[in-house]
């Protein structure tokens, strides 16, 4: 018997014994090398669910993860002990959305790490073989974990369609926002005006290429002489995130909303959006983006390592959730190592 981190409900995370289920045909067993604590994991912790996806029974979170193969997979050219990433989105492949190239919108998805499907905050996990993403040997477990959130950032920028040298407002500089920032740079965006209430995240945004970084959207209005930006990408966890994105936008501009608001509710004065005639898109997970994510990391165009601020063992995982929920100073991205006790409480 192993152990796992279970979410029982809002602000109730516990490490307890975990019986690994039997594998099914077409699945492979992984020893979990590392797993990221994602903003959506944090929403399950803070709110007890996201929209209609509620915690009705204790479940194991963790959808950003990498692991070592416990057996050879000759059909994939992979051997036991190889480090691999995993795409957690097990879409049905048969619905209209899947057939039209949008598996991220599949209503029948079995998403690893979203209730009721257990995730990777445990020592070993069975995953469908077709969700395994092979990696070059130079990848580290942390880099492999970060491919999933990087994929979310790539999908968001795909939706945004930044024009060459276009000025962009980035609202929110958490891990997803900072990855979006780097992908925007790689895509040829011009000035990037970033805002975040936390100083250490603003400093990191500047280090990663933001032209300016301020504490509130009011500064974007000042920097643009009240005009706003033609493109705004929002990546916050705040109910006010939608509002701030609208206030940062120019008349006739485009807004892409990536973040999930606390409490699953936006706060938005309707007139501000309506009078601007904005084009608004919502980002949902990602599509087939892993090849590009791997290329961006391998070529150094995106630095995922700089975002990892804290490391925890599995036994310390409840503390990681608590610290992120409290917005503890210095927190950016936490990685949990279920099988490596030497990684604990290191930043």
What would your notes on this structure say?
- Helix 3 (about 140-160) packs across helix 4 and helix 3 (about 140-160) crosses helix 9 (about 290-300).
- By secondary structure, the chain is of the alpha/beta class.
- The model has no long low-confidence stretch (mean pLDDT about 95).
- It is globular and about 60 Å long.
- Strands 3, 6, 7, 10, 11, 18 and 19 form a 7-stranded mixed β-sheet that branches.
- The chain contains 10 helices and 19 strands.
Question: How confident overall, as mean pLDDT?
Answer: 95
Principal-axes shape call: globular
Q: What pattern of helices and strands is seen along the backbone?
A: EEEHEEEEEHEEEHEHEHEHEHEHEHEHE
Major pleated sheet: 7 strands, mixed
Number of helices: 10
Structural class call reads alpha/beta
Please state the CA-atom Rg, rounded to the nearest Å: 20 Å
The count of DSSP E runs of length 2 or more, i.e. the number of strands, is 19
How much helicity do the residues have? 25-40%
Low-confidence stretches: none
Distance between the termini: 30 Å
Strand percent estimate: 25-35%
List the helices and strands and how they pair.
Layout: E1 2-9, E2 12-18, E3 27-36, H1 39-47, E4 49-50, E5 53-54, E6 64-69, E7 83-86, E8 89-90, H2 96-99, E9 110-111, E10 124-128, E11 132-134, H3 141-160, E12 168-171, H4 175-186, E13 192-195, H5 199-207, E14 212-214, H6 217-223, E15 229-234, H7 241-247, E16 249-257, H8 270-276, E17 279-282, H9 290-298, E18 308-313, H10 317-325, E19 333-337
Helix pairs in contact: 3-4, 3-9
């Amino acid at each position: 018997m192993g152990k796992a981190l279970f979410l029982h409900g809002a602000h109730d995370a516990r490490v307890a014994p975990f019986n690994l289920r039997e594998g099914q045909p077409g699945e492979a067993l992984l020893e979990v090398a590392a797993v990221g604590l994602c903003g959506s994991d944090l929403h399950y912790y803070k709110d007890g669910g996201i929209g209609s996806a509620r915690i009705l029974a204790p479940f194991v979170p963790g959808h950003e993860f990498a692991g070592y193969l416990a057996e050879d997979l000759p059909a994939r050219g992979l051997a036991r002990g190889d480090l691999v990433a995993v795409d957690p989105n097990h879409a049905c492949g048969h619905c209209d959305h899947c057939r039209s190239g949008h598996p991220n919108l599949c209503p029948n998805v079995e998403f690893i790490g979203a209730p009721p499907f257990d995730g990777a905050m445990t020592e070993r996990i069975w995953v469908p073989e077709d969700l395994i993403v092979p990696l070059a040997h130079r990848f580290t477990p942390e880099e492999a974990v970060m491919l999933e959130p990087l994929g979310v950032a790539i999908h968001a920028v795909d939706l945004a369609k930044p024009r060459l040298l276009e000025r962009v407002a980035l609202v929110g500089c958490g891990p997803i926002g900072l990855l979006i920032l780097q992908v925007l740079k790689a895509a040829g965006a011009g000035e990037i005006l970033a805002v975040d209430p936390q100083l250490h995240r603003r400093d990191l945004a500047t280090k990663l290429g933001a032209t300016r970084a301020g504490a509130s959207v009011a500064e974007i209005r000042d920097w643009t002489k009240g005009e706003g930006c033609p493109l705004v990408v929002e990546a916050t966890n705040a109910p006010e995130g939608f509002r701030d994105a609208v206030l940062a936008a120019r008349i006739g501009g485009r807004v892409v909303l990536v973040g999930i608001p606390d409490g699953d509710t936006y706060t938005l004065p309707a007139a501000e959006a309506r009078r601007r005639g904005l084009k608004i898109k919502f980002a949902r997970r990602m599509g087939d983006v892993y090849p590009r994510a791997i290329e961006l990391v391998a070529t150094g165009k995106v630095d995922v390592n700089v975002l990892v601020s804290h490391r925890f063992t599995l036994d310390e995982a409840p503390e990681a959730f608590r610290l992120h929920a409290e917005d503890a100073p210095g927190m950016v991205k936490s990685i949990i190592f279920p099988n490596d006790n030497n990684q604990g409480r290191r930043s």
